[in-house]
Every structure is written in C-alpha cells, then in structure tokens.
Design goal:
Layout (H helix, E strand, L loop, with lengths): L2 H27 L3 H26 L2 H26 L5 H17 L4 H4 L2 H22 L8 H11 L2 H9 L14 H13 L8 H26 L3 H42 L5 H6 L11 E3 L9 H10 L2 E3 L9 H13 L4 E6 L4 E5 L10 H21 L1
Helix pairs in contact: 1-2, 1-9, 1-11, 2-3, 3-4, 3-6, 4-6, 6-8, 8-9, 9-11, 10-11
Amino acid sequence: MDRLIFADSIVSTAALFGLMILASSIKRSGKDSISRRFLFSLYIIQLLLFFRILTWITGIWLFDALTLMVAGILPLAMIILTEGLMRRHASKLVKMIAAGTAIAFIPLALFPESFAEPWRSVLLLSAQLWAFLTAGYMVWTRDKESLSSAENIIIERIALSIPLIIPMIITDFRIPEFEVPVRLSGIAILFMCWLTVSLERSHLKNSDMLRAFLILLSGSILAGLAISYLIETDLTGYIQICVITLSATLVAVLYNDSISLRYDERRDSLLRHMAKGNIKSSASFLTGLQDHPLVEGAVILEEKDLEDFDHSLLKSVFTRDALQRKNGIIEANTSNESENLKWLFERFNATHVTLVSNTPLSLVALNMPSLSASPGAEIELRAVQRMAILISERKAIK
C-alpha cells in the first residue's frame, strides 16, 4: 500500500472510531430532536469515512461512487443540524441548494473519472465549504436571547471546530501542484467529537478545551520529532507520524472521557433511585439498588442473621458511626466491640457494613475494596444509609 494512502487510512479509521464513540454517548443522553439530527449527521460522516477507507484498501470503483454520493449529502446534514441547534429554519434558498447538492451527486458519482474530474471535485469542495460557512454564519448571527444559556454553550462549543474543519477539509482533495502528506479532516472530526463529548462537563470552558488541544498537539509534535529521529525519516514522514500520533491520542482521550461520563451516569442513577425508588420499607428501597455498582452484591442482614452477635453492642457501635469499615476497626472503643466487628466482617466477607434500621436491627454488608472505590463512594454510601434509616424510622413512627 502506498505510504500516503496508509497514513490517510489510519487517520480516517481513528476518526471513524471517534464518531462511533460520540454517537454512542449521544444515544445514551436522550432521543430529543437535536440528538436525532446530530446522529443523522454523524452517520453520514461515518458512512463517508467507511466507504472512503474501503476505496483506498480495495480500489473498487463502487466504493468510490458511494463515497461521492454520501459526500454530496453532507451539506444537507450540516444545514439540518444547524437548524436544530438554532431552533429556527434556514432560508428556502439554503435548503434548496443543500437538497439539490445531495440529489445532484447521485448521478454525478457514477460518471467516469476521466470525464468528471477535476470539475466534480471542485464542485463537491465548493458545496462542502459553502455548507460550513453557511452554518458558521447562522451561528454567528443567531439570536442569543431566544436560546437558553445551555443551548448557547452547545452551539459555541461545536462551532469551535468550524475554523479547524474548513482549512482541513481542503486537504481531502488532492491537488497535484500541492500534495499534502496526509489528509487532515480526520483530526478536525476528532476535535469536534471531543468538544461535543465535553459538553457534559459543564465546568469546562472553551478556553480549557483549546488549551488541552494545544497540549495534545504539542505532545504529538514532540513524539513525531523523537520517532523521526529514531527511524531517520523525511519531512513527509515526520508530518504523517505527528498526525497519526495526534489522531490516536484524541481517540484515546475521547474514549476515556466517554467512560468517565458513563461512570457519572451510573452515579446519577443512584440519585434517581433515591428520588424515585420504592420507599415502602428499607428492604424494598435497598432491593431496588441491587444492580447499582455501589451496592452490587450487598447483603441485607436482619436480626435472624445476627443471632450470634450482641445486638445491643452492635446498636451502640453503629449509633456512633452508622458506616463501619473493616480497616477502621481499631477505632472501636473496646476490645469486645472490636471482636464483634471483626467477626461480622469475616463472616459476611464485607469491607463495609452500614446500619439501615434500628428497630428491628438491620444491617447491610458489602464488599468495596479501597482500590476500586472512588473518592466519593463512601459519601454516596452514607447518603443511601441515611435514606434507608429515615425510611425505617418513618415506618416505625407510623
């Protein structure tokens, strides 16, 4: 495989993975109108990259034609997405141009290259640049007062990628007099994906994201210098190494952010259960949490399960601290308390035991090793415990 095609394929494959990660994240977020429009745009770009990679690998003409057809739909997808973000329609002329481009490239894609090039590529590039510039103009001239603060943040964050996409998309079109070492649109796509995923990090500013991108870019440049020195490559090879390194780094960061957000969603599910769960009794409340990672595998210990223990002693210990830790046994006041707690942890193979009901005595034992526990895990566990004890006390009062 030609070195240029190999580098292009790696960067485009990285961009394809980035789009898949972003699409998965959006699917989990919800199914509102904006999400559907966003997913439509992402699927179009995914198809474009997929067919383009197949064309480079196989050289089959059909994949090249499909690539051109999908590329012709891209301007329409951009306008549809921008309309959703703005909550207003584009002008009729803009819609007609976008739809006309999509329709026109179905037959144009079937024309032989000897007849259609280079005017077909010029037409496609012009249409795509027009779509991005039009979207940028709609963003710039939007009525900020008619949109919520959150909507304005979404628009501004996504719009940050437009100045990067416009020049980089030009590199997708090979110009004989100006051969670039690698197509750069994949980098712009990954940057856009990263910016979009970061929308769920409300504490991050646009400047934070730009600063982080510059750090990643600097790291890729340094890595490219080091690798180029080791393998003694030319300038073209050095640029390809830098771009491939940056694309791989962006995919890794994007995936890491997606996993982090998924963990946050699981934490939010705990709050949702506390707000909407069954509160008829402590047992029913805790049973509903069985699938949550925080209390997964937790064992509810009722009085009959604690016959071998001194109930009054346990009540005394858990009154002082409702959440007892295995590695905190030494803090117990007496040796008798320490022995009871040690036996409690050993018998039920637990690292944490928490009180959920005083009358009748009821505990929850769970295994949460310190290495796997997040910094806020014990705070969350205490919140669950307080909710459960309040439910039991309310029931007792009734």
